[in-house]
Amino acid sequence: MKNIAVIGSGTMGNGIAHVFAQHGFSVALIDISEDALKKALTTIEKNLDRQVAKQTLTEEGKKQTLQNIKTFTQLKDGVANADLVVEAATENVELKLNIFKEMDSYAKPDAILSTNTSSISITKIASVTKRPDKVIGMHFMNPVPVMKLVEVIRGYNTTDEVTNTIMDMSKKLQKVPVEVNDYPGFVANRILMPMINEAIYSLYEGVAGVEEIDTVMKLGMAHPMGPLQLADFIGLDVCLSILRVLHDGFGNPKYAPCPLLVNMVQAGHKGVKSGSGFYQYT
Ligand code: CAA
């Protein structure tokens, strides 16, 4: 496997492209917007500069990484040569189903189609393609160049061969892959989101303030960020949509999103990306 296509150049997509390119793969980074692609390349360069400054990457390594990335605005052109596609578009079921339907017809018949979805069913996504055995979840964590985990999610029809290929591929990126099965929230978000939701409930019920809740979890549990800061970092709209997947998928009231989270998202307070969430960013 040499040629990788990454669909979506937002926070996750540019991080995924960065990591593949840094490890010598040819990357086709695809987005419908030329501006988004330009922004993504600027972000990748800035993050490579951090690595150069820390001497974990040479100037030559940075140059080579950037040369390994080509950008495309047409899905058809971007996926044509790919051995592996990693879809990292917006977390929206209809959008992802359309992308998979379309790319299934353009990608090589033996290409593996993976998705970075944080909670949408891999089996459902695979069902719109003619190759459900070659569809798999490759769930990277933000910030992708820093976080070691890849949650590798097997759909109902994913073969052992495809799973093993993706486990090996993740190791080539110097990540630690963990294989899990396809149930709502997989493992990462099934455990993370109830914690974040409980932190929001603690605030909503007046048990403690934002900074107090985060300090308890940072200093008491050695988490690098408190749950409310982490929710802002992930995006409150993303947290809400994952909680809804858990709530719908298991039908268990314990996953019901806190009304405060619902209100904040409706009011446009989505965390870092909107300039305000539990904290202010502007
Ligand atoms: N690219 C490259 N390097 C980066 C980077 C990026 N985008 N962002 C940060 N770094 C590097 C920095 O250069 C620094 O490196 P050194 O320690 O070697 O000097 C290191 O990462 C730490 O960065 P900072 O000093 O700027 O900041 P920090 O110490 O506060 O750490 C953090 C930042 C790594 C984000 C840390 O706060 C953290 O680990 N937070 C939790 C992240 C987390 O839980 N992510 C998972 C979210 S859930 C998800 O992604 C999936 C989902 O489905 C919702």
UniProtKB/TrEMBL annotation:
Recorded GO MF terms: NAD+ binding; oxidoreductase activity, acting on the CH-OH group of donors, NAD or NADP as acceptor
Gene3D superfamilies listed in its UniProt record: N-(1-d-carboxylethyl)-l-norvaline Dehydrogenase, domain 2 (1.10.1040.10), NAD(P)-binding Rossmann-like Domain (3.40.50.720)
Keyword Oxidoreductase in annotation: yes
GO aspect biological process, one term: fatty acid metabolic process
SUPFAM superfamilies listed in its UniProt record: 6-phosphogluconate dehydrogenase C-terminal domain-like, NAD(P)-binding Rossmann-fold domains
Domain 3-hydroxyacyl-CoA dehydrogenase C-terminal: from-to ranges: 185-281
Residue positions binding NAD(+): 8-13, 31, 91, 96, 118, 142, 273
Domain of life: Bacteria
Marked site positions, Important for catalytic activity: 139
Domain 3-hydroxyacyl-CoA dehydrogenase NAD binding as annotated: residue spans: 3-182
The keyword Ribonucleoprotein belongs to this UniProt entry's keyword annotation: no
Keywords: NAD, Oxidoreductase
Family of the protein in this entry: Belongs to the 3-hydroxyacyl-CoA dehydrogenase family.
PANTHER family in the record: 3-HYDROXYACYL-COA DEHYDROGENASE FAMILY PROTEIN, 3-HYDROXYBUTYRYL-COA DEHYDROGENASE
Protein name, per record: 3-hydroxybutyryl-CoA dehydrogenase
Organism: Chryseotalea sanaruensis
Species lineage: Bacteria, Pseudomonadati, Bacteroidota, Cytophagia, Cytophagales
